[in-house]
What does this fold into?
Amino acid sequence: MLRLRCGLSWSLVLVMLSYVLSRSFCQVVAEVTRPTIGSVLRTFTTSSPKCGGTSNNASVVTYSQLKTMLSNRNIQLFDVRNPDEYQAGRIPDAVNIPLGNLEESLKLSPESFEQKYEVKAPGKDDDNIVFHCRTGKRSATALDIAGQLGFSRARHYEGGYSEWAELEGK
It folds into this structure.
């Protein structure tokens, strides 16, 4: 059983625990072996890759890669921003699936997905699935959701629509 010291509250422990679960296993083990409160707190205040590899370069699509994929028409691009953001400006050929609807949408049968979004449903082994949002935060979350559902080769455009619009001169 976990004993609390130094007035550490249960809510803080739960926040820390949820953060630990999102950290890489090796880093957590390394930090837990250090006995000081300072080292444990440092674990929760420094950035690191999350499980699922959203910071892994293999899961990130750059602007030039995105341009190539679009020109080759070899992409399933999903914009996870809200509909009003999507209407205000979008990357060509992107399909709007707001982040709040993504999990439910990826669980649809291929027929239902195609009927709802008017595009071919993504397959779990497809390597051309790319998520994007405005700045890369929501698309990283989308990538985690997709990964949990078995879309292990999906990626995200980290620069998001903000970078796209800037580089496209829009």
Q: What stands out?
A: The longest helix spans residues 10-21. Residues 19-55 have pLDDT under 50 and may be disordered. The chain is about 50% helix and 10% strand.
